């Protein structure tokens, strides 16, 4: 899949504005939705429990998509429960799903069960981003997870939950190499400044998950490096 925004002339359409801190309440989530809509971000990424309210705050479906994390943050949820969460999120307005896989299945060599878990969510018909925690997996495990995810039909490979090491251009480049044009790449975690964001896009990320979306687009505007 090509990276149509590789020059990052405007970061806003690449950003999934994230609020995943469980210690935040409805007012913070409402502000997150309003900021995402104001700046024209690609999406707003939230826990599944916020889907009904966020759908209302975002209004009808538009350029800013409503994204729900599934199985967040550890993925250690039985497959049927993860599918049920994904289905509930879809029924309540989610337009994309960022899914944490069951890493125990990966490490125990149960590739078929892992594939079935992901495929059951892909079957709902929404774009699925597979959260890899790529910086924390051994090379062989990462390669296996990527292949299983792509075979299941995921639309994006996502570097991580944002709770681990910061995403690096090397992480993105590695995922792009493994994807071989079969899906897009989302970088998430530790995206704190404009130069870092631009470096991730240059490496091949076509989506950026960050809670600092507003700061990034303002910095780009001040620097005269975007619209």
Overall description:
- By secondary structure, this protein is of the alpha/beta class.
- The chain has one domain: TIM Barrel.
- It is 43% helix and 16% strand.
- It contains 9 helices and 8 strands.
- It has helices at 26-39, 51-58, 79-91, 103-107, 111-122, 139-152, 169-179, 194-203, 213-223, and strands at 15-19, 43-47, 65-70, 96-99, 128-131, 156-158, 184-188, 207-210.
- Strand 1, helix 1 (26-39) and strand 2 form a beta-alpha-beta unit.
- It is globular and about 50 Å long.
- The protein starts with 14 loop residues before the first strand and ends with a helix.
- 46% of the residues are buried.
| DSSP summary: helix tally | 9
Residue share in helix: 40-55%
Order of helices and strands: EHEHEHEHHEHEHEHEH
What is the structural class? alpha/beta
Total strand count, please?
A: 8
Count of domain modules: 1
Q: Rg from C-alpha positions?
A: 16 Å
**CATH-scheme architecture:** Alpha-Beta Barrel
What distance separates the N and C termini?
A: 25 Å
Low-confidence stretches: 1-6
> What spatial order of strands do you see in the largest sheet?
1-2-3-4-5-6-7-8
Name the beta content range.
15-25%
- Return the CATH class: Alpha Beta
Question: What's the average pLDDT?
Answer: 94
* CATH homologous superfamily label: Aldolase class I
Shape: globular
Largest sheet: 8 strands, parallel, barrel
Keywords for this entry:
alpha/beta; single chain; 227 residues; disordered N terminus; 9 helices; 8-stranded parallel beta barrel; TIM Barrel
Blueprint (SSEs and pairs):
Elements: E1 15-19, H1 26-39, E2 43-47, H2 51-58, E3 65-70, H3 79-91, E4 96-99, H4 103-107, H5 111-122, E5 128-131, H6 139-152, E6 156-158, H7 169-179, E7 184-188, H8 194-203, E8 207-210, H9 213-223
Parallel strand pairs: 1-2, 1-8, 2-3, 3-4, 4-5, 5-6, 6-7, 7-8
């Amino acid at each position: 899949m090509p990276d149509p925004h590789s020059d990052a002339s405007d970061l806003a359409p690449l950003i999934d504005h994230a609020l995943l801190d469980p210690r935040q309440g409805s007012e913070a989530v409402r502000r997150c939705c309003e900021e995402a809509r104001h700046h024209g971000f690609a999406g707003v990424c939230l826990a599944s429990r916020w889907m009904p309210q966020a759908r209302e705050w975002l209004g009808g479906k538009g350029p800013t998509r409503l994204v729900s994390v599934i199985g967040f943050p550890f993925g250690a949820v039985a497959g049927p429960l993860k599918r049920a969460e994904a289905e509930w999120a879809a029924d309540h307005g989610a337009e994309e799903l960022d899914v944490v896989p069951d890493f125990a299945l990966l490490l125990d060599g149960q590739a078929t069960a892992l594939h079935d878990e992901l495929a059951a969510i892909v079957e709902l018909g929404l774009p699925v981003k597979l959260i890899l925690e790529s910086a924390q997996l051994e090379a062989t495990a990462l390669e296996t997870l990527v292949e299983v995810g792509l075979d299941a039909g995921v639309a994006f490979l996502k570097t991580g939950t944002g709770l681990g090491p910061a995403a690096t251009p090397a992480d993105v480049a590695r995922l792009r190499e493994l994807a071989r044009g079969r899906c897009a790449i989302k970088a998430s975690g530790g995206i704190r400044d404009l130069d870092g964001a631009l470096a991730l896009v240059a490496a091949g990320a076509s989506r950026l998950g960050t809670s600092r979306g507003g700061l990034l687009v303002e910095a780009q505007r001040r620097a005269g490096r975007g619209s």
